[in-house]
Design the sequence.
């Protein structure tokens, strides 16, 4: 065997499930320096690194890992951040198993190198040291507007600032981060880490205007008319879907967005010190099985629910959530009602949820896409005692910003039509992330922001050259 | 930061702020609202834009102290800053020159949001009958301002302490009897009052617009906390409204949904009072 037998992958120290299900502190505790160096030593330093092909923002993976193996963490941080503006976040929430780590050669015979954990370790180390100000190109004296301060917008803004643009981010909420702040819970992604990474963008000179709803207070054409050379739309997929079943407006039925935003962004778990209340009953049903559903279920447990059920109409294998999140949810005591779907939410005389009627499914023959679609079993209806329902069946594009621009081409779902590099039907207007693709991952949104930054630079430079002639 | 430049106290619980928020003032239209967050620990509170001054860059909000959030807000003074102000939000009122007179009814703090709508209706050339009402004289405000934007103003109090004794619904019936060509009615106030108005106008088949005031959080359509049942459809009041056809609104459901956080609101009030006595919250 040409590859020598690799040592085992370093495990991630975690909080005990029995303890952590009662607190909002981070579950995964991170590597020590010794563990990180040991893990970095497992990397083969491939000449043609496959892992990089799996990373949507093209992080210099073998290079930064080499620096970790040598114990030169400052160098590792510089290499890491050359391509990724938000490494402490990506190291925590990326689905590495289907991206960089899926391509790792070591993973063929053994477990892949823990690239995400190493990324997290380096970013956390640098935060503790205090990050130096990144290098910037000379100022270009040109302004670009970025709409939405989620992962796509933040990445686009960071790359444009590095290229020398004056960037202003317009954000509807009172803080930056988008889903990183309101959606992903504290126990997976501590908010002080998100805030620190965003502070690094401020050091690059990125200006942030909060409480600015593009589509209401201003619109894309006004921005273009007011001196911005280009606009990047990264407004995300923030419109919650509901099931459309009877009883969905009863008291005690929440969208996952509402439930998580109250808890995370508004710090409802510190009520009443923080004034925003969040309600959770004793028996909670979470509809859906994506990452957001896992987040909502685990949050409900931490807020004191006695029983939390994930209700999903397919089987465990089809659940869209990351394997790690499903495992964490299991460990913490979340119960899974698979091949099950609600048909009606039943209320009491005060308009509160008291039960839910569900129906059992079985998996039918594979359809054209090869996926076995669930088929309801006749007569299998049953009633579940439930007092809270959290609907987590996905989100659509929020139309506030797009509705205000009549000449912006949208598809039938309301997503912006954009090419690979984010060019839309309006010259100078670019878009990327969930508003283009529909709800996807943090890192894909970041990749889209990065590509658009490059395309915006080309566009603005070409326009300037044209003017000069 | 958004400074409070003027404060007016209408009653022990009803207060007015002029807030410097030039970007909101520049775009505000009748029927729209904004959301504020007083400080880092505060909740997001939706308030209707009762008036705006584009040149001064200010918006006017009138609010009634009900829970902990509005109580704390009421303690702020001129010169204090509000941490976050976001707006204008919601769809503006549909203002046009109607074929026939219109009536606009404001109950309690609902007098505030009807003012810019009445003004816009009058400016569009409508004959505007305005009816304002409150439980008692102490809770009334803006009588002169309302008179200046209406063809006729009727003031009512439930207890007869000022103006005509009785409910705004009775005053509206009188207006309709004298003007059966009434074309549109706007009603803004507490949900029971809006429901009562829609019940009065339903047999007349006069289009009746209400401005829903459900619980809200973000105010930009991302959570659905504010959803209301309108006909067979679920609507988000913050982006599809807040104005809806009152004859289609399920008020019973809307009122139940207002009580979702009733217990928590009590706890928050208790905590606020406890804090005043020098106690901590015990959260950490």
Sequence:
């Amino acid at each position: 065997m040409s590859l020598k037998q690799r040592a085992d992958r370093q495990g991630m120290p975690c909080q005990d499930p029995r303890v952590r299900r009662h607190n909002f502190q981070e579950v995964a505790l991170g590597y020590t320096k010794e563990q990180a160096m040991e893990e970095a030593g497992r990397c083969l330093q491939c000449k043609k690194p496959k892992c990089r092909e799996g990373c949507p923002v093209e992080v210099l993976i073998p290079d930064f890992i080499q620096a970790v193996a040598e114990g030169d963490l400052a160098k590792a941080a510089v290499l890491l951040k050359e391509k990724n503006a938000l490494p402490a976040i990506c190291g925590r929430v990326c689905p590495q198993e289907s991206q960089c780590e899926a391509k790792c050669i070591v993973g063929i015979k053994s477990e892949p190198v823990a690239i995400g954990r190493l990324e997290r370790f380096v970013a956390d180390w640098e935060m503790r040291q205090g990050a130096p100000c990144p290098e910037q190109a000379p100022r270009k004296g040109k302004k670009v507007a970025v709409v939405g301060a989620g992962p796509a917008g933040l990445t686009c803004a960071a790359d444009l600032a590095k290229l020398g643009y004056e960037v202003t981010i317009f954000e509807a909420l009172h803080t930056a981060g988008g889903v990183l702040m309101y959606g992903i819970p504290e126990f997976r992604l501590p908010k002080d880490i998100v805030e620190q990474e965003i502070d690094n963008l401020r050091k690059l000179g990125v200006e942030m205007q909060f409480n600015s709803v593009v589509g209401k207070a201003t619109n894309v054409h006004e921005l273009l008319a007011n001196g911005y050379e280009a606009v990047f739309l990264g407004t995300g997929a923030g419109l919650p879907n509901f099931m459309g079943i009877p009883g969905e407006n009863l008291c005690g039925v929440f969208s996952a967005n509402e439930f998580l935003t109250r808890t995370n962004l508004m710090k409802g778990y510190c009520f009443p010190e923080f004034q925003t209340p969040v309600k959770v009953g004793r028996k909670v049903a979470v509809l859906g099985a994506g990452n957001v559903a896992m987040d909502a279920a685990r949050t409900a447990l931490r807020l004191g629910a006695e029983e939390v059920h994930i209700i999903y109409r397919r089987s465990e294998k089809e659940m869209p959530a990351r394997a790690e999140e499903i495992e964490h949810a299991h460990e913490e005591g979340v119960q899974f009602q698979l091949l099950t779907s609600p048909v009606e939410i039943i209320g009491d005389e005060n308009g509160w949820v008291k039960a839910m009627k569900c129906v059992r499914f079985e998996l039918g023959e594979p359809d054209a896409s090869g996926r076995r679609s669930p088929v309801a079993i006749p007569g299998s209806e049953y009633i579940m005692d439930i007092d809270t329902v959290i609907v987590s069946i996905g989100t659509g594009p929020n139309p506030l910003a797009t509705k205000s621009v009549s000449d912006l081409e949208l598809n039938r779902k309301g997503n912006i039509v954009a090419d690979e590099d984010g060019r839309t039907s309006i010259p100078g207007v670019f878009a990327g992330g969930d508003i283009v693709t529909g709800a996807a991952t943090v890192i894909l949104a970041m990749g889209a922001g990065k590509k658009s930054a490059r395309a915006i630079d080309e566009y603005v430079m070409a326009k300037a050259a044209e003017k000069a002639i | 930061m958004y400074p409070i430049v003027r404060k007016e106290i209408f009653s022990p619980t009803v207060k007015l702020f002029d807030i410097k928020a030039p970007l909101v003032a520049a775009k505000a239209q009748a029927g729209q609202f904004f959301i504020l967050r007083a400080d880092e620990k505060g909740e997001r509170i939706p308030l209707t834009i009762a008036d705006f001054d584009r040149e001064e860059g200010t918006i006017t909000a009138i609010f009634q102290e009900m829970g902990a959030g509005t109580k704390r807000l009421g303690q702020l003074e001129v010169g204090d800053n509000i941490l976050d102000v976001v707006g204008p939000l919601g769809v503006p009122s549909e203002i046009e020159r109607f074929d026939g007179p219109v009536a606009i009814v404001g109950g309690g703090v609902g007098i505030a949001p009807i003012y810019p709508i009445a003004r816009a209706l009058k400016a569009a050339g409508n004959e505007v009958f305005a009816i304002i009402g409150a439980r008692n004289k102490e809770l009334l405000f803006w009588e002169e301002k309302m008179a200046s934007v209406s063809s006729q103003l009727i003031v009512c109090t439930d207890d007869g302490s000022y103006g005509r004794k009785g409910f705004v619904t009775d005053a509206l019936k009188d207006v309709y009897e004298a003007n059966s060509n009434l074309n549109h009615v706007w009603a803004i106030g507490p949900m029971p009052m809006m429901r009562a108005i829609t019940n009065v106008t339903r047999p007349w088949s006069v289009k009746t617009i209400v401005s829903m005031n459900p619980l809200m959080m973000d105010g930009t359509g991302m959570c659905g906390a504010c959803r209301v049942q309108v006909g067979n459809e679920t609507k988000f009041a913050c982006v599809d409204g807040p104005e809806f056809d009152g004859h289609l609104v399920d008020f019973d459901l809307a009122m139940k949904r207002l009580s979702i956080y009733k217990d928590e609101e009590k706890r928050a009030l208790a905590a606020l009072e406890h804090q005043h006595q020098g106690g901590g919250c015990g959260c950490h």
